[in-house]
Amino acid sequence: MTDITEEEIESTFQRLTADAKRSGYNLNPDEEFTKELVESLLINGKRYGYWACPCRLADEVKEEDLDLICPCDYRDVDVEEFGACYCALYVDKEIASGEKEAKPIPDRRPEREERAQFKASSGKGVVQTELAYPVWRCRVCGYLCAREEPPGICPVCKAGKERFDRFM
Question: 42: Cβ–Cβ under 8 A, 6 or more apart, which residues?
Fold first, then answer.
């Protein structure tokens, strides 16, 4: 039993739903499932002080968990490739409309050792000569993101993938 109330869950669910729609995203249409995820986010918020993804083990140190604070760093690429993020809170249009179901997907988060090595190699005083991912720039609003491919839709201005240029 948690000290999270139904009112907290409902108000957070409503806020996330509105935020998702406003930003061009979709929450999982299974309201009961989604509210369980919302409750888990609220529990993690009270436990850690931040909304760690409820489907992953948090390191319990915010600086170590920045990549999995909801919405996590992996959401966009997971939704584009698999139709849902790892925990299936965020889904694509086909899943949101009921045309297809969310399926389990692989976890993109590197193991702790890999994260530590990356952090050590990109720390203060180290000049990084190569980027791990290309940087994409939205020609409409200037939004920048570093990933393999540009996002399907710009999270700022809602421009399509074709409106992105490789920046670096």
Answer: 4, 8, 9, 12, 51
Quote the CA–CA distance of 152 and 11 in Å, as a whole number: 29
Query: Dihedral sign, CA of 45, 50, 51, 53?
Result: negative
Specify the pTM: 0.75
Could you tell me what percent of the chain has a pLDDT over 70? 90
**Of 165, 126, 125, residue with least CA distance to 142:** 165
Per DSSP, what are the bridge partners of residue 138?
164
Higher-confidence residue of 93 and 132: namely 93
**Do 45 and 51 touch, CB atoms closer than 8 A?**
yes
Please report, rounded to a whole number, the percentage of residues in the chain having pLDDT higher than 90: 60
Largest Cα–Cα distance in the chain?
50
